[in-house]
Write a sequence for this structure.
């Protein structure tokens, strides 16, 4: 039983690693040049602080997921893992939400503030960013599952 | 010892309630009319989906904090509290990050996307929103502390 539980958590951590790595790679490769009349228009992730933050959050998430996957079973650091999981989950949630908020303005614009949508000009770039955010969202959900799983495992024997 | 711990958690929950209520009230009252030449310009939180999301997240956080504060000690629902704390913390983090990302564009603009800053026109509104985000941030930090505290309390006796 304990072995099945361990394998399940390991699988979730491997999935979290995959999701954060994909999110980071898809975001960092999002780039498009577009010409409107005579003006060349370049869109890339580094033009938007929220996307840079999303990238950094997912790189930290990926490195952390990788380290935990290869943490020896007898390590003292396992004591900290649930607490660090909470912090990493919050970091990933924060990066994903900030990127999504900006991507939404890019897609729909905000007429009150006079911010025009840019996705009609750089459609491929917007799809790329959308893909990165979807992967980031998957990472967040996997970390949430991991946390609920840890809480269930640790708390249930105490409380039931 | 157990009593001191209980009081400490209760205090943190009361602070979380205060922070989320303040964040919601300050956001919902952010409103400014400004006239530039002959054009009247109105800014309010409901013009920005991210700010509406921030408000909803903080209202849910406030209602949850309130309910937990008055949950009877013998209730079966205490089993769910740590898991619900995780979900509420993620919701508050997400709302705060989305609102902050948009507020940053409002303050600094984004020249690449052609989005102009609007805070010069509606300075009072921007300060108001900034205050709401600061209170929201306080709520997030208090919930993080609560979570780390629960993890420390529950896991330490098992692991040490």
């Amino acid at each position: 039983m304990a072995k099945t539980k361990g394998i399940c958590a390991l699988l979730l951590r491997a999935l979290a690693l995959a999701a954060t790595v994909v999110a980071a790679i898809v975001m960092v490769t999002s780039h498009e040049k577009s010409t409107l009349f005579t003006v060349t228009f370049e869109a890339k992730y580094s033009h938007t602080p929220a996307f840079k933050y999303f990238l950094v959050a997912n790189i930290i998430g990926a490195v952390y997921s990788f380290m935990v996957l290869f943490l020896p079973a007898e390590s003292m650091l396992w004591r900290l893992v649930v607490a660090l999981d909470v912090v990493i989950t919050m970091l990933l949630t924060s990066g994903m939400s900030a990127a999504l908020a900006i991507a939404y303005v890019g897609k729909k614009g905000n007429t009150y503030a006079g911010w025009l949508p840019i996705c009609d000009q750089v459609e491929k770039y917007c799809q790329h960013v959308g893909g990165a955010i979807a992967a980031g969202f998957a990472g967040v959900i996997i970390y949430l599952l991991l946390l609920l799983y840890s809480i269930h495992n640790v708390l249930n024997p105490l409380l039931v």
